[in-house]
Request: fold
Amino acid sequence: MKRLLMAVAAVLVMAAPSYAQMGGFGMPGNVQKVEVDTEGVMKKITKAEKDLAKKATKSSTWINYGKAMLDAYTVYSKNVYDGLNTMNAAVMFGEPTSQENVNVGGVDMVKIVYTPEFVAYADANGNIAGWDFPVELVPGALDKAIEAYNKALELDSKAMMQVMGGINSITDALLKNASFAYGAGQYNKAGDLFKLAYEISDSPAILNLNFAALYNAGLAYFFGESYQASFDAFKAAADGGFEQEGDAYYFQYQALKEMASGDEINKEVLAPANDMLMAGFEKYPENAKIIECLTDYYVSMGEDPAAVIPLVEEAIAKDPNNASLWNGLGRIQNGQGDIDGALESFVKVAELLPDNDGAQYSVGYLYISKADKMFRDANAKTYSGQAEYDAALKEVNEVYAKSIEPLEKAHALNPADKAYVEYLRSVCFRLRDMEGMMDKYNKYNDLLKTME
Reply:
């Protein structure tokens, strides 16, 4: 399941406007050895703590203390940037002290220890996907920074802008480290960091709740197999209006399905999915993944998945030119073995999207599927003579022939797709005794050789 979902949505959404502009991100012009100023940071903390002992009622004192603690939290991670490779990392942190092959979320990676403070996870090409910073200069520094800024605002509402800047800096650090943890396969750690980025946005100093960070927490928790936490995060994100065109409902269902899985599906656990998916479908009827989940839900609950079809047909009646709805209907019909119904639906998709090669291909493919079934049925029958069999075979070939036009349209729209040419060659060879088909076969056979 995890690998399947990785293909669906492994990429994190942008969780804050400042994320792409965070300090340290981007390739520096000259790579130099990093000097980590832990001594300087500790001096700042010592001074800030002394000031607190004397001026604990001043908001500026707490702001300075918050800055010092944030420096302690980021003292190692600030030296790392997105896109760093192992060659540059060796210049910055020294040659690795150890490395080992590990498997992260089904992906083979190399764990590289540069120092106790800097641990990278890279692919075979030396591209670093994530980082771990095992050493805390000051344990609990992040919590102390957050508490300090909240205290500053509590003492003086006029400190709003400074507190806002401080919390935004904390958010950027959280998102950066969450992204690195996610890339390193430390999904639950990433989920906690993303969730915290959302939680601190619930502050008078911040104008908007960071539901994007909460959505990312849902993704991270899911891949960390913390399904209840994942469900809760996606639900809260959706309740806050961050739904990613309906994908938040899809992931809620997948999390519930995982929680309900066992020797037998726990129907009581899965039952709430019905209302949740219907709410998502009403908002995003074009989201095919929600339709798939509804179908799966009915199957899992021991009910007839065909019950989904009237729901989609009702949505189509309200929006008859919605190609996504027709596509969803066609997929359900095809899954139910209703090839003729699916063919009608996909023909409608192709009419609505005449320049979409995938839509044209789907029509051609379904004609081939229909003809294949007719051929199997024909061979299973007993005939009174050769003429009767030839007549049945002629009907089969006429359906095969209907696949050529949409497949040629798909090929014309996307000449580089080898699959279209392979289907055309195969069908034309099958129909080679029909007028003009041998020429078509030779054309596509020669073309396929050049593509190989």
Summary: The chain has two domains: 2-242, 354-451. Residues 1-9, 16-28 have pLDDT under 50 and may be disordered. DSSP finds 21 helices and four strands in the chain. The two ends are 33 Å apart (CA to CA).
